[in-house]
Amino acid sequence: MPRYADEEAPRHSNRAPYRSPARSPARHHEAEEINQSLCLFVPVVQDLCLRRCPHRASSPTGTVTRTNEGRQAAFETRMAMQRELDAARSQLRSMEREMDDLQRQAVGARDEAAVARSENGRLQDELRSCRERLNAALDSQQELLGKNAQKHELLIDLQAQVAGLRDEIVDKDARARVLEDTVARLEQELRTARHQASADNSARDAYANLSQEHDVTRSELRSIRSDHASREAHLRTLEADRAALRADVSAMHERIIMMERELDLAKSQAESANGAEAAFRDHLASKDDLIAELHRQKVEIEAEFAQFRSMADGQTRSLENQLDGARAKEQMLEDNLRTLHRTLGRQAAAAMPNPQYPLPVTNVSTRYVPVREVPRAPIRESVIYRTHRYEVHEPARPDPTGGVREVSRRVRRYMDLVEEKDEAERLADIARERLRRSLREDQ
User: Where, if anywhere, are coiled coils annotated (predicted)?
Assistant: First the structure.
């Protein structure tokens, strides 16, 4: 089928018309990415070529002809773009290294927070055990003080009873002495009476009465002596009880001294635990400063990344505008090329001696396909010389989207690292809040 109304189908062509092969969705997506990248770079190359070779704009064939200057301009443009891409890659590598450093610092801070959390748990357990021991010592001291008070009251009562018994014993001794003096006096009187018994019968009666009184007095004296012995035995038992109570009181006093020493030791351990807790709080404060510094660096990196993204968006918009202009120029050049082909065909047909059998303008079927619709296809351009058209085949260009894919991959990696860092900071804040809550509960 001829493309235009004034063209004829090729007569001497054995080649089948071009048909685009069926492509998979992945292949189609890759081709779309390559076309977009080509659409971004082609207008820049065309503008640079037109700036370096202004005579190309006035050339009737447009971009059909190629010169060394055009290839040199394209090469320089490609090298400049490659340098810019290398600079962007180096910047991304440096940003990736910085993010790796920040991630390592976050991991180190997480490990230190875990160690500090375990140390804080150990210190809390020690403080809890010291507190329990202190409470137990205080309770035992209170019990001992209560028991000591009861025994002290019992000792005071026993001392009062001993004092009363001593007074009674003293009274009994005085009474016994009086009775002994009376018995001695009565015996003396009895002896005198015995001496007088032989002389007087009345003395016998007095003697009998005195003997009876003496027996009564002796029985009273025996009862007093037995009572005195029982009182002395009771006094000895009271003295033994008093010595046992004194031994118990001294043992309790020693136990109280030992408990006071344990209490002082527990207080010193509590003070050391409080010092360790203060040191740990200072360590946490230093870690908070480090996390604040990391957050500040993160904010700076995010600002730089936002600036870089805004610059990339601006460049993308400018490249899209240039691409629209290049498409318009391409359409205009295609129209001019079609008009030129028709004019050359008519001129060749008019110049031939036998116009009823015109020679074909070309021996290849002509089909105008934009470059962006055929990804990775060799560029085919024709050079018109007189009335013949020669095919020029060039090798396929290298894939220019490799750098773009690498940049997008590294940008995604950077965003993942930023998310990981945010997650690490969130976990550190949660751990710090739990630690502060536990410290408040312990206090």
Answer: 78-133, 169-196, 284-336, 414-441
Query: What is the model's pTM?
Result: 0.24
Q: Are 61 and 340 in contact (CB under 8 A)?
A: yes
Query: Which residue, chain included where needed, has tokens 């409470």?
Result: 135
b/e burial code for range 360-375 (CB count within 10 A of at least 16 → b): bbbbeeeeeeeebeeb
Left (φ > 0), alpha (ψ -120 to 50) or beta: where does 385 sit? beta
Supply 441's token pair: 């509960």
46-101 residue pLDDT tens? 666 555 555 444 444 444 346 788 888 888 888 888 888 888 778 878 888 888 88
> If you average pLDDT over residues 374-401, what whole number do you get?
44
| Phi, psi of 388, rounded to the nearest 5 degrees | -115, 155
Cβ–Cβ under 8 Å, residues 40 and 315 = no
CB-based contact 202:164 (threshold 8 Å) = no
Task: Using the Cα atoms of residue 145, residue 151, residue 154 and residue 158 in order, give the sign of their dihedral.
Answer: negative
d(CA 307, CA 15): 54
| Positive or negative torsion for Cα 70, 76, 82, 88 | negative
Instruction: State the CATH architecture for 119-280.
Output: Orthogonal Bundle (1.10)
Tell me which residue of 66, 44, 45, 124 sits closest to 318, measured CA to CA.
44
**In the chain, what is the greatest distance between 2 CA atoms, to the nearest angstrom?**
222
